[in-house]
Request: fold
Amino acid sequence: MEKKEKILEFFKDKNYVPMKKKEIAMVLSVPKEEKEEFEKILMELEKEYKITKNKKNKYIYMEKKYIEGIYKGNEKKYGFVETEDGMQLFIPSKYKRKCNEWRQSCSWNPFRGNW
Reply:
């Protein structure tokens, strides 16, 4: 089993509890010489929306807890993300960080509350 798959399976385990990077490395017995590769794999999994960090900076498995669509903002600084299937999700102004244009393709993770 590839290292990336092994790490992802660790997150998917029903007994997994949110942990920080250092804690995960200890549990998985990652050798010091492989820590850089381990951190790179965590970053890749984050970019692929398979894991994310919660407000306590601990990693959690995503399970499709993000929404992709087109952001439509207005002059009142809030907006909506409209998905391909027609669903519209309200986006308060405090979460509008990366979508400064009137129409822009965005991904939003409502579980984490940010872009």
Observations:
- The chain has two domains: 3-61, 67-108.
- Strands lie at 51-53, 59-61, 67-73, 79-82, 88-91, 103-108.
